[in-house]
Design goal:
mainly alpha; single chain; 203 residues; 10 helices; 2 strands
Length: 203
């Protein structure tokens, strides 16, 4: 498989991002664009954990059902979920019904609430592990599944009480939230993503 492919409009994109209209929209408008608010980072962390072992397309197509089931990923509300909510979620065919992942999403809401309650920020914590310098990947082999930074982030999140977040999930979170820019060199979206990231890091 090639790193780049021509999209439906003739523009070069990361090859994974052209296989379905869902992927085209996600690739162009979301993946790698900076997410700097706690709710947004919490949502991506949950979705990346639910994706483990599954196709991302499955999660993408269920995202609105996830948002409805998890109170719009408002972590203060999810942190208050109890056993009845777990049972409700396990019966919800619109989401991935995995008890360990559901319980992790609730535990991670509690951990996020505790961070914010201590005048900290999940988003700031995640962004503090951004690599000093990005490398524009050119080949599939250039893409990592883990990095020293994602390993360190996963370790710190676990220390803070987060669950179901190993180095691979942490790196997927970094890719999804713009902490790293893994659009391939030559992708028509890469420069726009980089400009948005530069604005965030300058601020």
């Amino acid at each position: 498989m090639k790193a780049l492919a021509q999209g439906p409009d003739g523009r070069a994109r990361c090859a994974w991002g052209i296989s379905t209209p869902d992927y085209v929209a996600y690739h162009d408008d979301e993946w790698g664009r900076p997410i700097t608010d706690d709710r947004g980072v919490y949502e991506r962390l949950c979705l990346e954990a639910f994706q483990s072992g599954l196709s991302w397309l499955t999660i993408l197509r269920k995202r609105e059902a996830f948002r409805a089931a998890f109170a719009g990923f408002e972590f203060e509300r999810v942190a208050a979920f109890d056993g009845a909510d777990v049972a409700r979620l396990m019966a919800d065919a619109g989401i991935v019904r995995n008890r360990a992942k559901i319980e992790a999403a609730i535990a991670n809401a509690v951990a996020t609430r505790d961070l914010v309650g201590g005048d900290e920020s999940l988003a700031d914590l995640a962004w503090s592990f951004a690599p000093a310098r990005d490398r524009a990947p050119r080949r599939l082999q250039d893409l990592a599944s883990t990095t020293p930074e994602s390993t360190a982030l996963a370790k710190e999140l676990k220390r803070r009480g987060f669950r179901f977040v190993g180095p691979t999930t942490a790196y997927a979170l970094m890719q999804a939230t713009g902490i790293v820019n893994d659009h391939f060199a030559g992708c028509s979206v890469r420069d726009a993503v980089e400009a948005e990231r530069a604005s965030v890091t300058r601020d």
